[in-house]
TrEMBL record:
This is Probable transcriptional regulatory protein SMSP2_00970. Keywords: Cytoplasm, DNA-binding, Transcription, Transcription regulation. It holds the Pfam family TACO1_YebC_N. It comes from Limihaloglobus sulfuriphilus. PANTHER family: TRANSCRIPTIONAL REGULATORY PROTEIN YEBC-RELATED (PTHR12532:SF6), TRANSLATIONAL ACTIVATOR OF CYTOCHROME C OXIDASE 1 (PTHR12532). One of its GO terms (molecular function) is DNA binding. It comes from the Bacteria.
Length: 250
């Protein structure tokens, strides 16, 4: 339906590695705390909290850990106060990058994000310098091994999906944020279990990276950001072809 992109596939593999290192639970706990603080502790009336809880369940986060994070957010338990800050900038080759963070100290996080940009040959820009290149979308990924492509496409299109891409190991389905709940429910009710389902910033257009050295710097930059404790999500508009990825893996 749309051009091939490797971003979701790369991100899925990275998320799996994060979970193995135990990094994911800490980041999701922060997300739950902020959602509960902003909208209350009832997920039935607080969509961001429900999405954060779903993310925790998908990462096999224990129920009591989720409940503790909610109580910290609502003030029932003492906890650190986090704020959401988005940093924008460029990776090598003019690739746009958005870095979503939750931090308890912006005076620490900002300089650290700037340093990571610069260490990999990029640069941090001002607020709004690249965000106009992205659109808020519901993004659902499904294992390619778990479902027939035509079956999934029929279900997705019938439930409000805008696009579906075959990324090799996963299918990536996108929709307008208003259609996200209905689409996710339709997929799960058809017996298909998504690997991930979230609201994300999706690039309106991608830039193909054909240089091996540039591709390596970009992927290293993304990995540096995702390894940072304050970073929740990294969004970018690069597209690295299979042949370049294979060279990097050899």
């Amino acid at each position: 339906m749309a051009g091939h992109s490797h971003w979701a596939g790369i991100k899925h593999k990275k998320a799996a590695n994060d979970a193995k290192r135990g990094r994911a639970w800490s980041k999701i706990a922060k997300l739950i705390m902020v959602a509960a603080k902003n909208g209350g502790g009832d997920p039935s009336s607080n969509l961001p909290l429900r999405y954060a809880i779903d993310k925790g369940k998908a990462a096999n986060m224990p129920k009591d850990t989720i409940e503790k994070a909610i109580k910290k957010g609502t003030g029932e338990l003492g906890g650190v106060s986090y704020e959401e800050i988005i940093y924008e900038g460029y990776a090598p080759g003019g690739i746009a990058v958005m870095v979503e963070t939750l931090t308890d100290n912006r005076n620490r996080t900002g300089p650290e994000v700037k340093k990571l940009f610069e260490r990999r040959g990029g640069s941090m820009g001002t607020s709004g310098c690249v965000s106009y290149m992205f659109s808020s979308k519901g993004v659902i990924t499904v294992s390619a091994e778990s479902v027939d492509e035509d079956e999934l496409m029929d279900t997705a299109l019938g439930a409000g999906a805008e696009d579906m891409q075959n990324l090799g190991e996963v299918y990536e389905i996108t929709c307008a944020p208003s259609e996200f709940d209905g689409l996710k429910n339709a997929i799960t009710e058809s017996g298909i279990e998504p690997l991930s389902a979230e609201l994300a910033m999706v690039p309106q257009n991608t830039i193909k990276v054909s240089d091996v050295s540039a591709a390596e710097k970009i992927l290293n930059l993304v990995e540096d950001f995702e390894d940072h404790d304050d970073v929740q999500n990294v969004y970018s508009n690069f597209d690295i072809p299979d042949e370049i990825l294979e060279k990097l893996n050899n």
